[in-house]
């Protein structure tokens, strides 16, 4: 009886750790997106500071490619929007993961209690 | 004190950890601030450089050539600066424009620094609080922990008695019914013994009874709504059952007392709630009946309706009113038989009360908990299966079961109007055989007969009856066989 519970407990613990990993992954991804968001904001603002006489380049690999100022501005704006959308998606995902992990935690605690009881019984018997 | 010590230890551990976490955050903030400060310094120098760069058309410099070598060279196009805007975007700008960009970035950095410093301050404060907490727990310092036991709330909630959740078929419901009856009795008791009994009932029990009364009132409402007429026949059986339950309760229950002997013959209805009580209560109360002095009490309150859960998804509704109705109905027609009934000297006499019709053969009454017998019982069977049957048989059953051949439901209405006061007198006289005059539960004695007499019990009693009782009662029954009332009546008629 105790052994079965122990096995169950192990399985649940693994699942839970997996969930935790997912959660942390989601969190880090969101953080990255946050920094990108900030950076792109700065870029946008700085581009606004420039005028048409300045040539804008984009670094693609080892190459600096000339870009139009307006094009650059548009591209940056689009990228900003994209990043915002990604952030929202990740937030929703994180929420979901959190809920699931909570449930899992409860399951784990109950299993632990059972296990302890069984352990106690075993000890008593012995 | 030990508990306090334990709590302090745990508390202390938690507080220590809290403090450590706070300190971590503070350290993190500080490191970031350092970083930003460095960057800020770098930007300052850059700014300066940009300021001075366009001063000359070209500069002679020593250009680093790989990691180990330098080369003399010239710095040209001093006003043209390719600035990294971020995210792999570059812009060729003049030195001045570059300066603008730099100052813009510096602004952003300043914001970040300010935020970080705020967070650091915040967490430093928390760290201080945690330190204070640490000091409180072991008892040092000037802080005192004020605790207040919230036991009052518990008492209020429980109302003095621990209440546990019970399954529907378990005893406590009976307690409710019994308590209900007791309360009714209490209200009208006049004898000393009744008074003494009141004293024994503690405040806590009163509270519990009040709660149960509330429940019963709700049940009553439901009953009224559901089946008013259908309940007619349910009275007697339920009254008996409720009485049974009462018996199990406080010993000096006169009601139970007077009925106890009558109930011994009543076979133990198979309903789970009853069986537990009966064997215990019967022995006690029978003995007590002899010892206890007279207890007089009258019951004038509006009778309550009570539900008995007999399992199998059925509920027997007990209504005192209906009991009375039934009783009074029976009384009307059975005036002559009362003389006989009054003389109860042997158990056989009691048995007489429990048979339906004595027109030639005493038809034993079935248990109210068996679906067939419900039509005649005071209890109304709320189960779906028997509901239809119940409706059908109601009219028929009445004509058979009751001595006064009541014919319609209207008669019930009439009987309802009967004042209960008239009835008690009958009962009082009827029970003279016992030590005390019981005015209270009028319909009960008559209702009791309605109730459950399992067929197996009949043969033995029947034999006795044959021996002792006048031969006016012919036993045409095939005693061992289960005969429905209708069949028996039909046989009778034949």
Q: In words, what does this structure look like?
A:
The complex is a heterodimer of chains A (126) and B (494). By secondary structure, chain A is mostly helical. Chain A has one domain (1-110): Orthogonal Bundle (Helix Hairpins). Chain A is built from two helices and two strands. In chain A, strands 1-2 form a two-stranded antiparallel ribbon. The mean pLDDT of chain A is 88. With 494 residues, chain B is mainly alpha-helical. Chain B has a domain at 9-135: Orthogonal Bundle (Helix Hairpins), CATH 1.10.287.370. Chain B contains 18 helices and seven strands. Chain B has helices spanning 2-52, 95-136, 151-158, 172-188, 192-200, 203-226, 234-248, 254-265, 272-291, 320-333, 337-342, 347-353, 384-401, 409-417, 422-430, 443-450, 457-468, 485-493; strands at 59-65, 69-75, 80-86, 89-94, 305-309, 315-319, 380-381. Chain B has a three-stranded antiparallel sheet. The interface between A and B is medium-sized, with 22 and 18 residues. Strand 1 (56-60) of chain A pairs antiparallel with strand 4 (89-94) of chain B, so a sheet runs across the interface.
Count every helix of chain A, treating DSSP H or I runs of 4 or more residues as helices.
2
Total beta-strand segments of chain B: 7
Low-pLDDT residue spans of chain B: 185-199, 230-292, 373-432, 444-479
Average predicted confidence as pLDDT of chain A: 88
- Beta-strand content bin of chain B: 5-15%
**Strand sequence of the main sheet of chain A, in spatial order?**
1-2
Level of helix content of chain B?
55-70%
From the spread of the alpha carbons, the general shape of chain B counts as elongated
Strand content of chain A: 5-15%
Helix residue percentage of chain A: over 70%
For the termini of chain A, the CA-CA separation is 14 Å
What form of chain A results from the Cα inertia axes? rod-shaped
H/E element sequence of chain A: HEEH
Family (chain A): Belongs to the prefoldin subunit beta family.
Keywords (chain A): Chaperone, Coiled coil
Organism (chain A): Cottoperca gobio (Frogmouth)
Coiled coil (chain A): 80-114
């Amino acid at each position: 009886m105790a052994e079965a519970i122990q096995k169950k407990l192990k399985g649940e613990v693994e699942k839970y750790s997996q969930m935790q990993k997912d959660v942390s992954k989601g969190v880090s991804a969101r953080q990255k997106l946050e920094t990108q968001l900030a950076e792109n904001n700065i870029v946008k603002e700085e581009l606004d500071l420039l005028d048409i006489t300045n040539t804008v380049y984009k670094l693609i690999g080892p190459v600096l490619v000339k870009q139009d100022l307006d094009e650059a501005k548009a591209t940056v704006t689009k990228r900003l929007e994209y990043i915002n959308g990604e952030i929202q998606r990740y937030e929703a995902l994180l929420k979901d993961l959190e809920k699931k992990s909570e449930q899992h935690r409860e399951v784990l605690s109950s299993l632990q209690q059972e296990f302890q009881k069984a352990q106690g019984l075993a000890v008593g018997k012995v | 004190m030990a508990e306090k010590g334990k709590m302090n230890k745990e508390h202390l551990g938690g507080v220590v950890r809290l403090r450590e976490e706070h300190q971590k955050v503070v350290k993190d903030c500080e490191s970031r601030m350092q970083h930003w400060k460095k960057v800020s310094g770098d930007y300052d120098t850059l700014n300066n450089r940009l300021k001075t760069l366009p001063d000359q058309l070209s500069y002679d410099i020593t250009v680093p050539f790989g990691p180990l070598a330098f080369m003399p060279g010239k710095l040209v196009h001093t006003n043209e600066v390719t600035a990294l805007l971020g995210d792999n975007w570059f812009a060729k700008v003049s030195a001045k424009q570059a300066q603008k960009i730099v100052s813009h970035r510096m602004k952003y950095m300043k914001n970040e620094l300010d935020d970080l410093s705020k967070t650091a301050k915040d967490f430093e404060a928390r760290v201080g609080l945690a330190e204070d907490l640490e000091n409180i727990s072991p008892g040092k310092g000037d802080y005192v922990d004020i605790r207040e036991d919230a036991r009052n709330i518990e008492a209020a909630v429980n109302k003095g008695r621990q209440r546990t959740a019970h399954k529907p078929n378990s005893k406590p419901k009976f307690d409710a019914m019994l308590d209900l009856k007791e309360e009714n009795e209490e209200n009208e008791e006049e004898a000393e013994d009744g008074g003494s009994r009141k004293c024994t009932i503690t405040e806590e029990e009163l509270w519990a009874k009040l709660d149960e009364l509330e429940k019963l009132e709700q049940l009553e409402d439901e009953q009224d709504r559901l089946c008013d007429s259908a309940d007619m026949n349910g009275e007697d059986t339920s009254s008996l059952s409720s009485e049974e339950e009462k018996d199990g309760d406080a010993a000096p229950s006169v009601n139970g007392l007077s009925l106890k002997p009558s109930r011994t013959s009543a076979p133990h209805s198979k309903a789970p709630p009853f069986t537990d009580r009966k064997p215990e209560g019967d022995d006690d109360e029978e003995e007590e009946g002899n010892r206890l002095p007279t207890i007089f009490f009258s019951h004038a309150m509006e009778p309550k309706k009570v539900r008995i859960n007999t399992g199998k998804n059925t509920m027997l509704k007990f209504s005192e009113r209906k009991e009375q109705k039934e009783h009074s109905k029976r009384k009307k027609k059975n005036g002559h038989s009362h003389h006989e009934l009054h003389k109860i000297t042997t158990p056989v006499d009691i048995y007489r009360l429990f048979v339906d019709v004595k027109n030639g053969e005493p038809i034993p009454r079935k248990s109210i908990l068996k679906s067939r017998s419900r039509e005649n019982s005071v209890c109304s069977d709320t189960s779906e299966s028997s509901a239809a049957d119940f409706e059908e048989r109601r009219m028929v059953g009445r004509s058979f079961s009751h001595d006064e051949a009541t014919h319609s439901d209207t008669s019930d209405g009439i009987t309802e109007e009967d004042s209960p006061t008239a009835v008690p007198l009958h009962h009082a006289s009827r029970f003279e055989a016992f030590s005390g005059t019981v005015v209270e539960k009028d319909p009960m004695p008559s209702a009791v007969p309605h109730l459950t007499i399992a067929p197996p019990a009949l043969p033995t009693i029947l034999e006795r009856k044959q021996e002792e009782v006048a031969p006016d009662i012919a036993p045409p029954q095939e005693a061992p066989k289960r005969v429905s009332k209708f069949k028996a009546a039909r046989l009778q008629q034949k």
